[in-house]
Protein backbone atom coordinates (compact mmCIF):
# COMPACT_ATOMS: atom_id res chain seq x y z
CA UNK A 1 0.00 0.00 0.00
CA UNK A 2 2.89 2.38 0.67
CA UNK A 3 3.86 2.25 -3.03
CA UNK A 4 0.30 2.39 -4.43
CA UNK A 5 -0.30 6.15 -4.03
CA UNK A 6 2.90 7.09 -5.84
CA UNK A 7 2.38 4.60 -8.69
CA UNK A 8 -1.23 5.70 -9.22
CA UNK A 9 -0.27 9.36 -9.23
CA UNK A 10 2.60 8.98 -11.69
CA UNK A 11 0.53 6.69 -13.91
CA UNK A 12 -1.97 9.50 -14.33
CA UNK A 13 0.50 12.40 -14.58
CA UNK A 14 2.56 10.66 -17.27
CA UNK A 15 -0.40 9.73 -19.47
CA UNK A 16 -0.49 11.46 -22.85
CA UNK A 17 -4.17 10.89 -23.61
CA UNK A 18 -6.56 13.33 -21.97
CA UNK A 19 -9.63 11.33 -22.95
CA UNK A 20 -8.29 8.11 -21.48
CA UNK A 21 -7.65 9.88 -18.19
CA UNK A 22 -11.04 11.59 -18.31
CA UNK A 23 -12.77 8.22 -18.67
CA UNK A 24 -10.50 6.14 -16.47
CA UNK A 25 -9.58 8.37 -13.53
CA UNK A 26 -12.95 8.08 -11.75
CA UNK A 27 -12.16 4.40 -11.16
CA UNK A 28 -8.85 5.38 -9.54
CA UNK A 29 -10.67 7.88 -7.36
CA UNK A 30 -13.03 5.20 -6.10
CA UNK A 31 -10.08 2.93 -5.34
CA UNK A 32 -8.41 5.74 -3.42
CA UNK A 33 -11.57 6.53 -1.45
CA UNK A 34 -11.75 2.91 -0.37
CA UNK A 35 -8.05 2.77 0.46
CA UNK A 36 -8.33 5.91 2.61
CA UNK A 37 -11.08 4.23 4.63
CA UNK A 38 -8.84 1.20 5.25
CA UNK A 39 -5.66 3.23 5.85
CA UNK A 40 -6.85 6.52 7.36
CA UNK A 41 -3.43 7.42 8.79
CA UNK A 42 -1.48 7.02 5.56
CA UNK A 43 -0.54 10.58 4.71
CA UNK A 44 0.94 9.64 1.33
CA UNK A 45 -2.35 8.04 0.35
CA UNK A 46 -4.26 11.11 1.49
CA UNK A 47 -1.97 13.36 -0.55
CA UNK A 48 -2.51 11.31 -3.68
CA UNK A 49 -6.28 11.27 -3.10
CA UNK A 50 -6.27 15.03 -2.62
CA UNK A 51 -4.14 15.71 -5.69
CA UNK A 52 -6.04 13.42 -8.04
CA UNK A 53 -9.50 14.55 -6.91
CA UNK A 54 -8.43 18.15 -7.44
CA UNK A 55 -6.80 17.46 -10.80
CA UNK A 56 -9.77 15.53 -12.15
CA UNK A 57 -12.23 18.20 -11.03
CA UNK A 58 -10.29 21.14 -12.45
CA UNK A 59 -9.30 19.52 -15.75
CA UNK A 60 -12.34 17.48 -16.69
CA UNK A 61 -15.53 18.20 -14.73
CA UNK A 62 -17.83 20.79 -16.30
CA UNK A 63 -20.84 20.35 -14.03
CA UNK A 64 -20.49 22.93 -11.24
CA UNK A 65 -22.12 20.95 -8.42
CA UNK A 66 -20.09 17.83 -9.11
CA UNK A 67 -16.86 19.78 -9.48
CA UNK A 68 -17.42 21.51 -6.13
CA UNK A 69 -17.96 18.17 -4.40
CA UNK A 70 -14.65 16.84 -5.72
CA UNK A 71 -12.77 20.02 -4.87
CA UNK A 72 -14.22 19.99 -1.35
CA UNK A 73 -13.11 16.38 -0.94
CA UNK A 74 -9.64 17.29 -2.20
CA UNK A 75 -9.32 19.95 0.49
CA UNK A 76 -10.56 17.64 3.25
CA UNK A 77 -7.97 15.02 2.29
CA UNK A 78 -5.29 17.72 2.20
CA UNK A 79 -6.24 18.93 5.67
CA UNK A 80 -6.13 15.39 7.03
CA UNK A 81 -2.68 14.66 5.59
CA UNK A 82 -1.37 17.90 7.10
CA UNK A 83 -2.71 16.91 10.52
CA UNK A 84 -0.96 13.54 10.27
CA UNK A 85 2.25 15.16 9.06
CA UNK A 86 2.39 17.66 11.93
CA UNK A 87 0.15 17.42 14.98
CA UNK A 88 0.38 21.18 15.66
CA UNK A 89 -1.09 21.78 12.21
CA UNK A 90 -4.36 19.99 12.94
CA UNK A 91 -7.12 22.49 12.24
CA UNK A 92 -4.57 24.87 10.74
CA UNK A 93 -7.16 26.47 8.47
CA UNK A 94 -9.23 27.63 11.47
CA UNK A 95 -6.45 29.58 13.20
CA UNK A 96 -6.04 33.34 13.35
CA UNK A 97 -3.47 34.55 10.84
CA UNK A 98 -0.67 35.25 13.32
CA UNK A 99 -0.80 31.74 14.80
CA UNK A 100 -1.27 30.25 11.34
CA UNK A 101 1.83 32.11 10.12
CA UNK A 102 3.91 30.90 13.05
CA UNK A 103 3.08 27.24 12.45
CA UNK A 104 3.58 27.43 8.67
CA UNK A 105 6.92 29.21 8.96
CA UNK A 106 8.10 26.68 11.52
CA UNK A 107 7.67 24.05 8.80
CA UNK A 108 10.95 24.86 7.09
CA UNK A 109 12.46 21.53 6.07
CA UNK A 110 12.43 19.55 2.83
CA UNK A 111 10.30 16.90 4.53
CA UNK A 112 7.54 19.51 4.96
CA UNK A 113 7.26 20.34 1.26
CA UNK A 114 4.73 17.71 0.19
CA UNK A 115 2.39 18.43 3.08
CA UNK A 116 2.56 22.18 2.56
CA UNK A 117 2.14 22.09 -1.20
CA UNK A 118 -0.74 19.61 -1.09
CA UNK A 119 -2.65 21.79 1.35
CA UNK A 120 -1.87 25.01 -0.51
CA UNK A 121 -2.88 23.71 -3.94
CA UNK A 122 -6.09 22.07 -2.69
CA UNK A 123 -7.02 25.20 -0.75
CA UNK A 124 -6.41 27.38 -3.82
CA UNK A 125 -8.75 25.15 -5.82
CA UNK A 126 -11.36 25.41 -3.09
CA UNK A 127 -11.20 29.22 -3.06
CA UNK A 128 -11.56 29.31 -6.84
CA UNK A 129 -14.68 27.16 -6.71
CA UNK A 130 -16.14 29.21 -3.83
CA UNK A 131 -15.23 32.64 -5.18
CA UNK A 132 -18.71 33.91 -4.30
CA UNK A 133 -18.05 33.14 -0.61
CA UNK A 134 -16.13 36.02 0.97
CA UNK A 135 -15.13 33.85 3.93
CA UNK A 136 -13.38 31.50 1.50
CA UNK A 137 -11.78 34.32 -0.48
CA UNK A 138 -10.48 35.89 2.73
CA UNK A 139 -8.27 32.82 3.17
CA UNK A 140 -6.31 33.62 0.01
CA UNK A 141 -3.63 35.29 2.13
CA UNK A 142 -3.12 32.00 3.98
CA UNK A 143 -2.70 30.12 0.71
CA UNK A 144 -0.20 32.72 -0.46
CA UNK A 145 1.77 32.30 2.77
CA UNK A 146 1.87 28.51 2.31
CA UNK A 147 3.16 28.83 -1.25
CA UNK A 148 5.75 31.40 -0.19
CA UNK A 149 6.94 28.93 2.43
CA UNK A 150 7.24 26.20 -0.21
CA UNK A 151 9.30 28.57 -2.35
CA UNK A 152 11.45 29.55 0.64
CA UNK A 153 12.32 25.89 1.22
CA UNK A 154 12.77 24.95 -2.45
CA UNK A 155 11.57 27.32 -5.15
CA UNK A 156 11.99 24.66 -7.83
CA UNK A 157 9.68 22.23 -6.02
CA UNK A 158 7.24 20.44 -8.32
CA UNK A 159 8.74 22.14 -11.39
CA UNK A 160 7.85 25.64 -10.23
CA UNK A 161 4.21 24.92 -9.39
CA UNK A 162 4.29 27.00 -6.19
CA UNK A 163 5.62 29.93 -8.22
CA UNK A 164 2.74 29.40 -10.64
CA UNK A 165 0.21 29.75 -7.83
CA UNK A 166 1.94 32.88 -6.54
CA UNK A 167 1.85 34.34 -10.02
CA UNK A 168 -1.87 33.68 -10.33
CA UNK A 169 -2.63 35.08 -6.86
CA UNK A 170 -0.76 38.29 -7.67
CA UNK A 171 -2.63 38.62 -10.98
CA UNK A 172 -6.07 38.76 -9.41
CA UNK A 173 -6.20 42.51 -8.79
CA UNK A 174 -5.75 45.05 -11.63
CA UNK A 175 -2.98 47.62 -11.12
CA UNK A 176 -5.53 50.44 -11.01
CA UNK A 177 -7.05 48.87 -7.89
CA UNK A 178 -3.77 48.38 -6.09
CA UNK A 179 -2.67 45.13 -7.68
CA UNK A 180 0.98 44.29 -8.32
CA UNK A 181 1.08 42.56 -11.71
CA UNK A 182 4.84 43.00 -12.01
CA UNK A 183 5.25 40.84 -8.92
CA UNK A 184 3.13 38.24 -10.69
CA UNK A 185 5.32 38.54 -13.80
CA UNK A 186 8.43 37.83 -11.74
CA UNK A 187 6.88 34.68 -10.28
CA UNK A 188 5.80 33.41 -13.71
CA UNK A 189 9.20 34.14 -15.23
CA UNK A 190 11.03 32.41 -12.39
CA UNK A 191 8.76 29.38 -12.68
CA UNK A 192 9.51 29.12 -16.40
CA UNK A 193 13.23 29.46 -15.72
CA UNK A 194 13.35 26.82 -12.99
CA UNK A 195 11.31 24.33 -15.03
CA UNK A 196 13.51 25.01 -18.09
CA UNK A 197 10.34 25.92 -19.95
CA UNK A 198 9.04 22.36 -19.67
CA UNK A 199 6.12 23.10 -17.34
CA UNK A 200 3.87 24.45 -20.07
CA UNK A 201 0.94 25.43 -17.86
CA UNK A 202 3.08 28.23 -16.38
CA UNK A 203 3.34 29.91 -19.77
CA UNK A 204 -0.39 29.44 -20.38
CA UNK A 205 -1.33 31.03 -17.07
CA UNK A 206 1.27 33.76 -17.60
CA UNK A 207 -0.57 34.61 -20.81
CA UNK A 208 -4.07 34.23 -19.41
CA UNK A 209 -3.61 35.91 -16.04
CA UNK A 210 -0.83 38.45 -16.56
CA UNK A 211 -0.72 39.34 -20.27
CA UNK A 212 -4.48 39.76 -20.42
CA UNK A 213 -4.48 41.79 -17.22
CA UNK A 214 -1.98 44.31 -18.62
CA UNK A 215 -3.32 44.07 -22.21
CA UNK A 216 -0.08 42.82 -23.74
CA UNK A 217 -1.23 40.87 -26.80
CA UNK A 218 2.27 40.35 -28.18
CA UNK A 219 3.39 38.61 -24.99
CA UNK A 220 0.08 36.73 -24.75
CA UNK A 221 0.27 35.31 -28.27
CA UNK A 222 4.01 34.55 -28.13
CA UNK A 223 3.67 32.52 -24.94
CA UNK A 224 0.73 30.54 -26.28
CA UNK A 225 2.45 29.79 -29.60
CA UNK A 226 5.50 28.56 -27.70
CA UNK A 227 3.30 26.18 -25.71
CA UNK A 228 1.53 24.86 -28.81
CA UNK A 229 4.87 24.25 -30.58
CA UNK A 230 6.50 22.52 -27.59
CA UNK A 231 6.98 18.79 -27.08
CA UNK A 232 4.50 17.96 -24.27
CA UNK A 233 6.22 14.74 -23.18
CA UNK A 234 7.95 15.32 -19.84
CA UNK A 235 8.17 13.00 -16.85
CA UNK A 236 5.57 13.99 -14.27
CA UNK A 237 4.15 16.74 -16.50
CA UNK A 238 2.91 14.97 -19.63
CA UNK A 239 -0.80 15.04 -18.81
CA UNK A 240 -0.69 18.64 -17.59
CA UNK A 241 1.29 19.69 -20.66
CA UNK A 242 -1.26 18.16 -23.04
CA UNK A 243 -3.98 20.03 -21.17
CA UNK A 244 -1.89 23.21 -21.34
CA UNK A 245 -1.63 22.89 -25.12
CA UNK A 246 -5.38 22.40 -25.41
CA UNK A 247 -6.02 25.49 -23.30
CA UNK A 248 -3.39 27.48 -25.23
CA UNK A 249 -5.17 26.80 -28.52
CA UNK A 250 -8.47 27.98 -27.05
CA UNK A 251 -6.96 31.18 -25.63
CA UNK A 252 -5.07 31.97 -28.84
CA UNK A 253 -8.21 31.50 -30.93
CA UNK A 254 -10.01 34.21 -28.93
CA UNK A 255 -7.01 36.55 -28.66
CA UNK A 256 -8.15 39.14 -31.22
CA UNK A 257 -11.61 39.30 -29.65
CA UNK A 258 -10.14 39.86 -26.19
CA UNK A 259 -7.59 42.50 -27.15
Automatic annotation (TrEMBL):
Pfam families xrefs: TAtT
Protein name, entry field: Uncharacterized protein
Protein species of origin: Gynuella sunshinyii YC6258
Amino acid sequence: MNRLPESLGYGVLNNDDLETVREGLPTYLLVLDGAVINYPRNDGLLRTASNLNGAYASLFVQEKERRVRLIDKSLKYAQRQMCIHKKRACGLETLEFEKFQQIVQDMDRKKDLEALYTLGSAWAGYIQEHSDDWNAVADLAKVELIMKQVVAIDESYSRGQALLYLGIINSLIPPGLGGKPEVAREYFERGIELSYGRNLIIKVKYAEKYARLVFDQDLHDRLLREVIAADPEENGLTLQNHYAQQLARELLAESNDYF
